[in-house]
Records
---
Amino acid sequence: MNIDRFWHLIESARSSATVSGSPFDEALVDVLAECPRREILEYAERFDEVHDALYRWDIWAAAYLIGGGCSDDSFMDFRAGVIALGRDWYECTALSPDSLAGHPAVVEAASAHHDEALFHENVNYAAREAFERLTGDREAFYKAQAEHRSTGRQHGSATDMGEDFDFDDADEMRRRLPRLAALYL
């Protein structure tokens, strides 16, 4: 699956969620469940790639500010939430995590002292849920995914996370993420 098709599926789910008022992750499962099994597996592979590309200290710092802290598991959910924002916000975040200070959900969450903005755990499992809907078997996805990956590129190459720094150092956070720090510190 090429990157344009991946983002088309994300945008289709975003549009569907907006029209129906359903949560994004449910709309994404609906969109994916209309795809052939192989395309769901290709989507999952591409999802992992774009998800892994956000595995950086500066993005984790943004998640830490927005979430009032951020564990390993929460950081997975945050990266899924950034993907759910669509291609434009994903690319802006990858270029400059501080740009999230301009996203309406982040601004609203900061003013309401709500720490769940952009943390969308179920987006991580949309491909599995869609595959299960097609097959009726919860475990079928993992077997098919392992077979799919064994015929192609191996998943799991190491990512350069960039420079590590102390998320609890307010001065450092203000220096690195000034707009987000202004909202949250």
---
Amino acid sequence: MANMMGRVEQVVVSLLDNGSRLQGPAVAKYVERVRRAHPDESPQQIVERMERMFLTAVTGSGGAVGAAAAVPGIGTMGSIAAVGAESVFFLEACALLTLAVASVHGISVQQHEQRRALVLAVALGTSGMEIVEKAVGVTTKNWGSLITNRIPAPTMAGMNQSLLRKFVTKYAARRSALVLGKLVPAGIGAAIGGAGNRAIGKGVINNARDAFGPAPAGWQLQLTT
């Protein structure tokens, strides 16, 4: 169990620190691409659109992996490998949504430690908020911007360690149940996988709304032609 938790921690840290699609400029370009496709939409409408895209993606990936167990020739080990890849996708999708919503709010997350803290805190929801507020000594309703303020390096490091441990424990418990469900054959696993991912995905969306509050009334930066 300890080895598994250690591997999950390594995957999470590697993803949040090195994922090219999660770097500041890449996230900004993603938001810009959605805005260009829907130039008349407000910041709130763009956030809601990204939420729907996120939910569709993670629901579809969960169902696809669950369906793999029903395909003749794909054994249990093959299904477990597919679940592992899908879990990484789910984590990356959660991170991209969190950072994209932050970008709409005018919060640019450039530093690895800040990005790690923000994504983990949003994924955890209330328990993540409590860890952040305890570390910085400030209580606020919409706490997403707290993480990008000037936080001393030792405080940030300790906060991230607490967030990571909490996230891995909570994530492993919730995802392990989904893994077992996705391995059920005859198409049942597809339904469990899709519904399970959708439920967790909705939780991430609600956490992000709590972290950042309502989107700005207007865009700080207009699209260039």
---
Amino acid sequence: MLSFLRGRDAVAPLSSDRLLLREMTLRDQLDWIDLRNANAMWLKPWDPTNPLGAPEPMSFRAMLAAKRAAAHAGTGYSWVMTLPQLHSKNPPIIGQVSVSGIQYGAARTASIGYWIDSSHAGFGLMPEACALVIDHCFQTLALHRLEINIRPENAASLRVVQKLGFRDEGLRKGFLHIDGAWRDHRTFALNREELKTTMLERIYE
């Protein structure tokens, strides 16, 4: 029980042989903004938008405060991805993985979202990062079901869920407002009992 409560109250660092996932801090502001700007065109087709029109963009501080409030409430967690093996001091951010919409009680479910710098895509880093988060969700947060929603046109993300072994639950019409319009998504899901090993072990079998 104590480890479960600690998991809800803090964004625990997660690591593999290649990756370190950690909580985003105010010190990351310039690096995070620079990385998002450098990948603006790469990420634009998959980024959420406001169906009521574009409000003033959320400041980095406001975004950070929202993420910390969600973590404190146990409704969502977000990690930035780094490669400490290649950068011994202050490894730069290369992407982000988030868990949102966490429900406890009878459902014990959540959604996973992610993005990665275009120059680091294609090396298996995103499935590895998601595997760390999935293992944390099942083992520490004791969730039962995780889902990932992907636009059918997003071939790179489809490869991620294929490697993770999530099942395809079908098409959801106009599911999310993305890149200026309501977009269809395919929902992929995994229940805890379907995973016979850790997810990190599964992707390297």
